[in-house]
User: Which sequence fits this backbone?
């Protein structure tokens, strides 16, 4: 299975909004409402921020939102804060009953 | 609050079998509706899904690793395990165990509880 495609890096200033795209195929992202997003700070385990394309787990800030159009899912972070600087990974269920991750995007808060 | 903890050798010789165990605390591995997963991350690189197991023993594996991977569960010990055979330097990574939540469509795909990870180095 091929990894989902994400940009290697994105950046934004505090208070701004950024969007991270995640492109897959009709066998994963486009075929299921099973996209999740993870935040990972250096040396830490990943933390789920979005599941089922656009749902936020309890305790995750409303500033994080998710969406999907066709084979591309997106994570939007509004009102950027310094603490949002981290690596972000998308993930999807696949038609082979497996899970695939994106390559990861490093978010820099300027 | 369910917690996961990985354990196992930090150093494995090339061609040998890597074996790790994940101990589940704060809840029974058999309760609820979850799959139990392994994910790895080479230093400076992205996450790679290795596979998952249900308490019935049903498994799914990453096709690129399927020939070398076995995931098993021991409900009496509240643990699940990973074995990766014929390892090479490319298998050097931080290995995480995680709980896979069903999601609205019951595909058990997103990981909502993670262990802290354990570093495994493959070297002679």
Assistant:
């Amino acid at each position: 299975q091929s990894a989902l495609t994400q940009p290697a890096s994105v950046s934004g200033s505090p208070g701004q909004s950024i969007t991270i795209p995640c492109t897959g195929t009709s066998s994963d992202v486009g075929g299921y409402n099973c996209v999740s997003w993870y935040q990972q700070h250096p040396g830490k385990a990943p933390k789920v921020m979005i599941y089922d394309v656009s749902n936020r787990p309890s305790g995750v800030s409303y500033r994080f939102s998710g969406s999907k159009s066709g084979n591309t899912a997106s994570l939007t972070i509004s009102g950027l804060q310094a603490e949002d600087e981290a690596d972000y990974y998308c993930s999807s269920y696949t038609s082979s009953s497996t899970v695939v991750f994106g390559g990861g995007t490093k978010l820099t808060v300027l | 609050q369910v917690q996961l903890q990985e354990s196992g050798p930090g150093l494995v010789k090339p061609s040998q079998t890597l074996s790790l165990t994940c101990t589940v605390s704060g809840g029974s591995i058999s309760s609820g509706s979850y799959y139990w997963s392994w994910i790895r991350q080479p230093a400076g690189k992205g996450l790679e899904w290795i596979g998952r197991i249900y308490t019935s023993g049903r498994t799914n594996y990453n096709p690129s690793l399927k020939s070398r991977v076995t995931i098993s569960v021991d409900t009496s010990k509240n643990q699940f395990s990973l074995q990766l055979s014929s390892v090479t330097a490319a298998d050097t990574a931080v290995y995480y165990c995680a709980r896979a939540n069903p999601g609205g469509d019951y595909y058990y795909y997103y990981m909502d509880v993670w262990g802290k990870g354990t570093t495994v180095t493959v070297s002679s």
Remarks:
- The mean pLDDT of chain A is 97.
- The radius of gyration of chain A is 13 Å.
- The first strand of chain A starts at residue 9 and ends at 12.
- The beta strands of chain A are 9-12, 18-23, 35-40, 47-50, 64-69, 72-77, 86-93, 99-101, 105-109.
